[in-house]
Design goal:
GO terms for molecular function: catalytic activity. The protein has nine helices and seven strands; from the N terminus they run ββαβαβαβαααβαβαα. By secondary structure, it is an alpha/beta fold.
C-alpha cells in the first residue's frame, strides 16, 4: 500500500511519526514538528489506512494497520528508524517494536494506548482541574464530553488549537474508522505481551488524561529497560497541543539518547 506522507528535507536520522486515531499527518506534524525543530531530522508523517489521504485498502483491524505500516517502512526507508506516535499511533509504534524490532531504533510514545478495551483502562479518578467559564464554547456540542475528559490544560486557546488539529488534513474514511474501532480485532493480538525492546524509549503521559490515563503506561515500562517515563500535570490526551514546551524538552533528551 502507498501511504500518504509528508517528509522534511533534513539530513539527520529519520523519524517516522504515526497519528492519533482519526487524525492526519498534518495534525501530527503540528504536534511533533515543534518538538523536533532544530534537530536536523528527516521527519516523515504518515496517514494511516482510512485516515487523511490514505485509502482504506486493508482490513479494519489493528494488526492489518500495523502490517501495512511495516510494509511501508520496509519499502520506503532505511531501517532501523526512530518511531514517534501519539495515542493510537503510539499503540501501533509499540506494537511494531514488539513484532518487528529490526525496524525500530527508538520509540517516542506520547499518551500511548496500552489496552484497547476502554473498560480495562486505569484512568485517573480525581476531579478535573478548574477551567474558565465558557472554555468549551468554541467546540461543537458533540465534542464537549470528549474534550472535558481529554484535556488537562483547560483553556479556550487549547480547545481552539485541538479543534484546528482535528479538522486538518484529508477527509479520511469515517466508515472504515468506525469498523476498526468497534470491531473484534481492534486490539493487537499481542497487546498484553511483555516483549522487551532495548532501544531508547521515552513515554510521556498527561496526569489528567481521561482517555488512556497514565498508570497503565507506567506499568508497561518494564518492557523498556532504556525507558524514560514522564507524567505531566495540566496535561491530558492532547498533550502535544497542551504542553508543547515540555514535550520539546523531553523529545530533545530522547534524541540525545538515540545518538548516544
Amino acid at each position: 500500500m502507498n501511504l500518504a506522507y509528508d517528509q522534511s528535507a533534513g539530513t539527520g536520522p529519520e523519524v517516522v511519526c504515526l497519528p492519533m486515531f482519526s487524525m492526519t499527518r498534518t495534525a501530527t506534524a503540528t504536534a511533533f514538528g515543534p518538538a523536533f525543530a532544530g534537530a536536523g531530522l528527516r521527519e516523515t508523517y504518515l496517514d494511516l489506512p482510512g485516515h487523511g489521504d490514505t485509502p482504506a485498502d486493508c482490513p479494519p483491524t489493528s494488526q492489518a494497520m500495523l502490517d501495512t505500516v511495516c510494509a511501508w517502512l520496509d519499502q520506503h526507508v532505511d531501517t532501523p528508524v526512530l518511531l514517534a506516535g501519539a495515542s493510537y499511533g503510539a499503540y501501533l509504534a509499540a506494537g511494531i517494536a514488539r513484532q518487528r524490532p529490526d525496524l525500530v531504533g527508538g520509540l517516542l510514545l506520547v499518551c500511548p494506548g496500552i489496552t484497547i478495551a476502554r473498560e480495562s483502562r486505569d484512568l485517573p479518578q480525581e476531579p478535573p482541574l478548574a477551567a474558565p467559564t465558557g472554555w468549551l464554547d468554541a467546540a461543537p456540542a458533540a465534542l464537549h464530553a470528549h474534550l472535558d475528559a481529554a484535556l488537562g490544560h483547560r483553556s479556550a486557546a487549547v480547545v481552539t488549537t485541538v479543534l484546528t488539529a482535528l479538522s486538518s488534513g484529508g477527509p479520511g474514511d469515517a466508515t472504515f474508522q468506525e469498523k476498526l474501532q468497534t470491531g473484534p480485532d481492534y486490539a493487537l493480538p499481542d497487546e498484553s505481551d511483555d516483549v522487551v525492546f532495548d532501544g531508547p524509549v521515552t513515554v510521556v503521559t498527561g496526569r489528567q488524561d481521561g482517555i488512556v490515563g497514565y498508570a497503565d503506561q507506567f506499568r508497561a515500562m518494564r518492557r523498556y529497560p532504556r525507558g524514560t517515563f514522564t507524567v505531566l500535570d495540566a496535561a491530558g490526551h492532547y498533550l502535544p497541543y497542551e504542553q508543547p514546551t515540555m514535550l520539546r524538552t523531553l523529545t530533545q533528551d530522547w534524541l540525545h539518547r538515540t545518538r548516544g
